[in-house]
Each structure stands twice: as structure tokens, then as C-alpha cells.
Amino acid sequence: MARQTALITGASGGIGYELARQFAQGGYDLVLVARSVEGLKHAADEMRERWNAAVHIAPFDLALPGAADELYQHTQRNGLTVDVLVNNAGFGTHGFFHEIDPKETLDLLNLNVTALTQLTRLYLNGMVERNRGGVLNVASTAAFQPGPFMAAYYASKAYVLSFTEAVAEELSGTRVTVSVLCPGPTGTEFQRRAGITGTVIGAKGLLMMSAERVARVAYRQFRKGKRVIIPGLANKSGAVVAPRVPRALVLPIIKRLQKR
């Protein structure tokens, strides 16, 4: 049987890099996407040497308008059939919404929402025609409640969760798997990039999982066809409880946790 190919965005570090390792170990060839050429080369070398994966690197900044379409055309020109799409690339911002640079917010929405949606549409069509494959979208436990001081980020992840669950239901009964990963605090560069290292949620502690553990759980449950994947008991509990608590109580709590 021919090897399948997984395309993973945000693959130069963090959860994306660890997911690439999981897919390579599972026998997949890879298309690795990120802005950092050096980071992609490093990841590709490891996947080739350790697991003999065929790896194609694609340096794209998916926050730029039209980048998702360009990536799709790039894979088409290179004869790459994408069997699994992992939409992992994303970032957050922190602070009063009205004080955050509008371009930062627009880039966040372009990457976390628009590019993810476009790539899902572009690659899903072929999967449905072949009646096999899958999409793994990366959201967050932030998807289950609003997030003062990270308003756009939390909202973007709520979109990813809702969007993925809806598409998954549309394709129930087919052999195409559509899943959403909702990790809690994870030890990556996300905290530094978002500027939340000085907050309770951003601080390293007992509840922060490693990217490797998150990816291991995600890969295993994605392969089993699980629709919503929440690694860690504490994260699962929070995802169940948060939507059931009145927003008037939840919002001040999140506000305190996110405040520096």
C-alpha cells in the first residue's frame, strides 16, 4: 500500500513539530509548512533520518491574504496528494482589545480562522472524492469560554471548534475523519509570542502539558476517529464545566487569570 501524506502547518516548532514526528513515526510522508525555512529544514532532516519519511518543505506565511490558495497551488504543481491536513498554525495576542495593534488582530484572524477554513475547503474536496483521509484542526480549551485580554484569540478558537464539529457531522458516514484538538496550556513558544508569560495561565506549572504529550494523545485519538480531542483530565474537566457556568461568573475568573 502506498504511503499517505500529511500536510502540517506551523510545523517548525511546538505542537506542530511534535505532530509531524507522530505522523512520520506512523508511516506518513510529510508536507511541512511554516514561515521559518531553517526550522523546517531541521524538522525535515529529523523525519527523514529517523523514520525514512519523504518530506517536502513549504515556507509560507499563512497570515498573508491569499497564502492558503498559494500553498494549495504549490502542492498541486508538485504532484503532492494530501491525505491528511493538520491545521495547526496559529498565534495569540494579549492586552486590552482596543490597545492591540489592529494589524496584529487581523493577522491573527487571517491565520487562525481564514487560512484554516480555506485550507480545509481546498483539501477536503479531494478527500471526499477519494472517500478517505482526514482533517485535524487545532483549537484550544479557550474555545469553551470568552477570554478577556485575549478576546480575539479565544473567539477564533471558538470558531475552529464550532466549524470543525459542523463539518465532521456533515461527513459522518464517510471514511473522511474531521477532528478538532483542544489542548490546554502547553509548553511551547506560544506564551512568549502572545505575551502571557507573566499571567497565571501562561506561567509554567503542574497543569501545563508538554507538546510531545499533547501530540501523542492527538495522533492516537485522531487515528481512532474521535471528533473532539482534549488531552489531560484537568482540561477535559474544564471544557465540561466552563460552558455550564454562568458567563457572569466565568468572565471575571478568566480576566483574573489572564491579567499580568
Q: What does this protein look like?
A:
- This protein has 260 residues and is α/β, with parallel strands linked by helices.
- The chain has a single domain, classed as Rossmann fold.
- The protein is 48% helix and 15% strand.
- The strands form two sheets. It has a seven-stranded parallel β-sheet, with helices on both faces. Strands 7-8 form a two-stranded parallel ribbon.
- Helix 1 (14-25) crosses helix 7 and helix 4 (102-130) runs parallel beside helix 5 (151-170).
- It is globular.
- The model has no long low-confidence stretch (mean pLDDT 93).
- Give average pLDDT, whole number: 93
Major beta sheet summary: 7 strands, parallel
Q: What's the domain count?
A: 1
Q: Return Rg in Å.
A: 18 Å
The beta-strand count equals 9
User: Which fold does the CATH topology refer to?
Assistant: Rossmann fold
> How big a fraction of the residues is strand?
5-15%
The level 1 CATH classification is Alpha Beta
The CATH homologous superfamily is called: NAD(P)-binding Rossmann-like Domain
Figure out the total of helices: 9
Order of helices and strands: EHEHEHEHEHEEHEHEHH
Distance between the termini: 53 Å
Helix content: 40-55%
Class based on secondary structure composition and strand pairing:
alpha/beta
The oligomeric status of these chains comes to single chain
